[in-house]
Structures are given as C-alpha cells and as structure tokens.
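Q: What changes when S-adenosylmethionine is included in the input?
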Amino acid sequence: MTGDHYFTAEPTTPAQPREVEFSVAGRDYTLASASGVFSAARLDPGTAVLLRKAELPGHDATGPLLDVGCGFGPITCVLASSAPAATVWAVDVNQRARDLTAANAARVGAAGRVHVAAPDDVPADLTFAEIWSNPPIHIGKAELHELLRRWLPRLAPDGVAWLVVARHLGGDSLHRWLVEQGWQVERHASQKGFRVLRVTR
Ligand SMILES: C[S@@+](CC[C@H](N)C(=O)[O-])C[C@H]1O[C@@H](n2cnc3c(N)ncnc32)[C@H](O)[C@@H]1O
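A: The predicted holo structure follows.
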C-alpha cells in the first residue's frame, strides 16, 4: 500500500501505462492513461454521462474553456476536438495527470491550443466561456466548496459551467449549495445515478 490518492500531487507509484478508448459524439478517442490518476482504466461513468448529456461547445467556439480536475484529459480532449478553434485550459493538482493530458492533447492534434497547468499557474485575469468539471468529491466537502468558490467566479458574464456529480456522493446537496451561493443551477440531466448540473450567473 502507498499513501497515493488520485489527487496526490506527485504519485509515488510507478506509472503503469494504459490506454483508454471511448467514443463521444461519433468520434473515437484512444488516450494515454496510467496508474496513479483518476479512473486510469476506463472512461469514468460520470464523465461519460457528462460528455453525453451536456452541450458540447460548437465548432466555432473560441473559448477559453476550462477543465477543472482534468485527470488524464478526457474532457479536455473532447472539448478541444469539438471546438477546433478554442483554447482549452486543463488544471489538475496531480503532476502525472497533467503530463498525460498534455500528451493526449497532442494525440488529438490540439497541443498548441491546450494549456495544461497547476491551479496556481492559470493567469489570474483569465475568464472562461465554459467551465467543465467532474469535480474531486473525495477531497472532502469543505475542499470541494473551496475549489468551486475558486473557479466558478472565473466564468465570463454569459458563461456556462457543466458539472457532473453522483447523486449518492451528494449531487443534490451540491446543487442546493450552489443555489445558496447565488448561482443559477439547472439539473440538466440525470442518468445512471449522475446529475449533470448547468450553472450560470
Ligand atoms: C473525479 S476526477 C476527474 C478527472 C477527469 N476529468 C476525468 O473525467 O476522468 C477529479 C480530478 O480533480 C483533481 N483535483 C483534486 N483536487 C484538485 C484541486 N484542488 N484543483 C484541481 N484539481 C484537483 C484530481 O487530481 C482528479 O484528477
């Protein structure tokens, strides 16, 4: 046993390379993954619901778009592929996840438009047209709230955030909390026990 979690900053376990295959909106993806990152062996079912049910950015979208907690980069790669003119920022605390996302952005031909960064390295004056996240519930409620308080205010005035949370991990209480914080929140979809929340100002 090691003390590593998927949100460990520098995983100490050796990176066992893997590949994850999935399809979104008629496009096939084969992305690099590795032990020590979230859902290393398959596209997470919550992420799959998010990418199936939320409204992907259109072909003409320019962003910038933000993926909070990018893991090995499935959301980032789908956003970058759906919006081939958009800039995408991919943020994670886990160095291995960031390295994989950068490699996967290159795989989908978006290396020049995908900026992979640790949270503190995102320029403070950037606002985002869209924020996407399968947020890290397991860091704890207070930390999750802090994460959302940090990033949601970075939405552009007419921006949209798309979040997916399992109902049994508090999807509905997170919905209520976001409303209490003054956000407009719509339960856009519910599938396989996951809530897809659409959040606006
Ligand atoms: C549920 S996983 C989702 C990963 C990926 N987006 C996916 O769908 O497979 C959440 C991610 O958030 C990252 N994370 C944890 N705490 C974070 C923080 N404070 N800031 C940014 N990312 C964080 C974790 O390392 C993890 O990769």
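Observations recorded in class: The pocket of S-adenosylmethionine is lined by residues 6-7, 38-39, 44, 47, 68-71, 74-75, 91-94, 97, 119, 134, 136, 139, 147 (CB under 6 Å).
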